[in-house]
Amino acid sequence: MSRQFEYGEKTIVTTDRGKVKGYGWRGLYIFKGIPYARARRFHAPEPVDAWEGVLDASSYGYVCPLLDLGKPQGEIRVPHRYWVADEDCQNLNIWTPGCDGEKRPVMVWLHGGGFEAGSSIEQVAYEGENMSLQGQVVVVSINHRLNVLGYCDLSDFGEEYANSGNAGTDDIIAALAWVKRNIAAFGGNPDNVTVFGQSGGGAKVTTLLQSPAADGLFAKGINMSGVIGPMLADATGSGRELAEAMMKELGIKSVKELETVPYARLAESYKKARDILGPQGKYVGGCPHPNAYYAGEPVANGFRRETAHIPLMIGSVFGEFAAFMPARQDRSKMNREDGVQAVTSALGQEAAGELLPLFESAYPNRNPVDLLSLDFIFRQPEIGYIRLRSGLNQCTWSYLFEQDFRIDGGCVAWHCSDIPYFFHNAELVPNTRMPGVEKLEEQIFRSVMAFAHTGDPNNDAIPQWKASTPEEEHTILFSGDTRVVTNHDHRLIPLAAKYLGPLLGRAMSGGGAKIQH
């Protein structure tokens, strides 16, 4: 029976540390800001103290402080929410159809923003209500340490800092351990947990696969636009020089003092040190640190065999960062000849002659001008990632979100534009409202839910979708004409990187791109 608002005895759940009180709303129980751990700066997370009475869980908890004050931009494409920040940010949020002993699949969301920014509630599309209700799953989103708080290697300064270079990942693992211990009380199945995330959140899925401490805490993963090659490469080497530069800037002499410096001063010292050491190719943190706790990025180091059985959905979107470039022409008014001329003018006759036949073979229903917005930054390393991963199992699925949008005279899919569809939240994001959106949303959402329930995304709303192999990448192209193709862009993407790379680089360095995660 559908519920409206509830807040009382029926919305209290007992966890292993004490009772929490959420609220009921529109057929769901919702809990916000539940602490799953605590941590001293640069140290591993620890269990929170048990509490007496009932903890109010009706408000979101703190999010991690960021290095820079965010400037709202691009909100028409990626609507955001901003929240109160504090280092005491180890908390999670839950949406569940019932705290009733049912064993529903659990979806744990890892937010984007690289390993440096973002939060569990940053995007409007992260709202878990529709996914939980429509999919009959328990949705969990988490906050954890980021930037210098979460990824700063101080291991040279003592055993207590042994994994400070991965403290943020340790927080995520602590949250998954909390889910393992407690989610049954919220109607979830602790043995059927899917971790999913976009951009940096997708990269965190990979990091969990490569972290032995996460073994047994999740059963499946969805990596959305999270294979980004050098842009989120491991932070290798010793953090000693970085720490010493920060201490010099702050006028202090010990790492212990770094633990107590006000965050604003710590962040400023870190940024100054990073800007000096980074161009020299030295360790500057900000990303996971390979060590005994983390096996390193898999394309360079191989996937850990212990995770070979874990099904993965891996994909990206047609335009990614390139779609943020200023509009060149109104695509809606261009015919094929206009598109060919635009590509030739931008890239030259030789490049256009090589690229256009491959592009039109890969995307026969597109105007050639869309070649100029084709992503290769994500797609090129993703092809290698899928080839490597699919060699371990028969449960690696590839997708590409190819839907166009109406804004700016017609725009290809941009970074983050697929998130509303995965969450069944198209109704919350105005730019997603277009003819046929309901069908596309159902195709994507039902695929995600089938994967969450069974580990196989196939369902009767989509064409038959095969798992990939090292020789054949079977990619479902989600759009108004959803279809499955095989190796459709494998010849195109390397050439696109060769010829489009300089064009994109010039546009981004010139300040033309307004990229929002």
List the helices and strands and how they pair.
Blueprint: E1 12-14, E2 19-21, E3 23-25, E4 28-35, E5 54-56, E6 91-96, E7 104-110, H1 129-135, E8 138-142, H2 147-150, H3 167-182, E9 188-198, H4 200-209, E10 220-224, H5 240-250, H6 255-258, H7 263-277, H8 298-301, E11 312-317, H9 336-347, H10 349-362, H11 379-390, E12 396-401, H12 419-422, H13 437-454, E13 474-478, E14 483-486, H14 492-509
Parallel strand pairs: 2-5, 7-8, 7-9, 9-10, 10-11, 11-12, 12-13
Antiparallel strand pairs: 1-2, 3-4, 4-6, 6-8, 13-14
Helix pairs in contact: 5-7, 9-10, 10-14
**How much helical structure, as a percent, in the residues?**
25-40%
Poorly predicted regions? none
Q: Determine the structural class based on helices, strands and strand pairing.
A: alpha/beta
Distance between the termini: 38 Å
Provide a short characterization of the protein structure.
By secondary structure, the protein is an alpha/beta fold.
Question: Describe it for me?
Answer:
- There is one protein chain.
- With 517 residues, the chain is α/β, with parallel strands linked by helices.
- It has 14 helices and 14 strands.
- Helix 9 crosses helix 10 and helix 10 crosses helix 14.
